[in-house]
Design a protein that fits this description.
232 residues; alpha+beta; six-stranded mixed sheet; five-stranded antiparallel sheet; 44% helix
Amino acid sequence: MFGLLFVALSAGGGSGCTAKKNSDPDQAAFQAKVMDDRKQLFGGRLLYRARVSADVGDSVTYTISLTALGEDASRKLAQVRPSTKSRPFQVGGVEGATLSSTSRSVKVELLADTKTKQIIVAPGDTASWQWSISPSKPGDYALVLTLATYQGESDRALDTLSPPLTIHLSVHNTWSHWINSIQTWLITLGSVAAALTVLFTFRAPLAEFMRNRWDSWRQRHRGRHDERDGYL
């Protein structure tokens, strides 16, 4: 009995080890493929604006570009405006970018003619993204920009911006928005005033009604008390 049990356990353990050995080469091949794809990446340059401004209630377009370095690309990059920032980034294949807001007061949408993922295959190739930024309240906000080079059509990133870039957004107030805010405030104030007027209008009748009820209750209570005193 014990011999059979030992043989069965040995057989089960052997099959598990065999399965593990069979899976290890697949995992190793997968990791080797990822490392090889990363070695195939080449230098690129991200151009972006670290600060952007907008008027409350309006929309502004924010644009970034990612260019694979080359002789022609270097000449183009040398002609960018001083307000534009640059950062090195590894490219080669499928590139993806996202821009998001940390506040509900700022709405960010990718423009319809811009693809979330684009392709860079050779030096000089450029990918660009555009978003519409629509703030509803004045103030200072932070936008988060992420960028990734993916392995083929998968969602596996070969290189990412780490940490993501923070884009500072300054939203200025406008006369129209200020006037609308004043009108809203006046309407709210008028509603409160109307409610207080109604309250004060009915305050005297309500007080008189409560006083009469109180006097009536006291008289009834005093009458019952007098009856009890007479009975005793």
